[in-house]
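Q: I'm writing up a methods section and want to include an example of the input and output format. Could you take the sequence below and give the corresponding predicted structure tokens, formatted cleanly so I can copy it straight into the document?
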Amino acid sequence: MAPRNLKRIINQIDDLPTLPRTVLKITELVNNPKSSARDLASVITDDQVLTARLLKLVNSSFYGFPQKISTITGAIVLLGFDAIRNLLLTTSVFNMFSSRYKDQRAIQERFWDHSLGCAIGAKVIGTYLRYEKVEELFVSGLLHDIGKIVEMLFLPDDFMNVMALTRQRNSLIILAESEVLGFTHPDVGKLLAEKWNLPLKLVNILEFHHQPDQAGRFIKETAIVHLADILARAIDLGSGGDNKIPALNAEGWTSLNLKPNVLEPIVQEMEREFHDINWVVTGTG
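A: Here is the clean output for your methods example:
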């Protein structure tokens, strides 16, 4: 199916959520060099849910600050504008894509667990690589499979056929998507990221997380999410919708310049952080 036909299908899904007004306003402020921490804090504190969730997150062991952070302004000063925007985007996406159907909700929770595992893996790998903006990697990992959630909620019959074919052939879900739908979750993720005016780097990661060698100047970031996806599947953090582990992209792996012996401590850290942060991000605690 040609990309323009996919775009037409996505545009026909009238209920596809747009980002909450608060997050859009925050994005505007982050992009404005004249904005202050006080400007940003005043917008966030108008939304009580986002305020509570953000303070929970910055005080979790995920960040490990030595003292309690009690104000949004303090969180902004410590983490920076970009990190705050990314964290609020993360919590908003969990709220937007919530199924009201019990059978879908069970599948969705497994998808979210996998995405959270991938997000944590991307952060841990980025830390090993001394990557400057690990929050960006975290958000990229969390959103890497957002296309699957869109398919499940807005094309439910087709998605059930995708899942059935995946089980029947014991194949990767991306192969069944291509056959049943004519497009894949990376295609949908890319379009959704563009609809939300997310940064080009994030658009590329969503589009090429199975093929980081095609991500151009963002190969390193995409390879981090690609490896995190594989590790999260290997240690059964949630479910990617199939029982397979994707092949490691050779060019992507080379771009990371990691030694194989660091994978075991990375995996151990992923498991520890996953259990520390799961309830904070998903809002189940």
